[in-house]
Amino acid sequence: MSSLPASLGLLVLRVALGVTFVAHGWQKIVLQGIPATQEGFAGMGVPLADVAAPTIAWLEIVAGIALVVGLASRVAAGLLAATSLVALFLVHAGNGFFSAEGGYEFVLVLAAAGVALVLTGPGRLAVDAVVVSWRRGRGAPSRIAQPA
Hints:
mainly alpha, single chain
């Protein structure tokens, strides 16, 4: 189990990353609208833009909320990291490093933060930790078969 300071650090990381992704999903769905987002994706060369735009937008919202509360954190962080890496290579890589010029700076940080959460887990200040604690306390069956 991680220490309280480490868990607080992971909480800060989860909330910042989750809120950022929720805001970007909200932007795609509500502020720009899905049709404009689909058009933008197509203009950037994203394959299957008509499917990708709403899928990515909803993924950003749902996985972002999951990160904030710490539910299925590793899965949510992994999906968001993968999305960021795809954006890095499909859209931003050819524009250099700095995000002011459309570069990959921002999506690289988002991907790195997601990978960090996949590797470390959410910490003990997360719903995931409560679920694990509850399962252990209830004597939930282990994934490893015990000898008879």
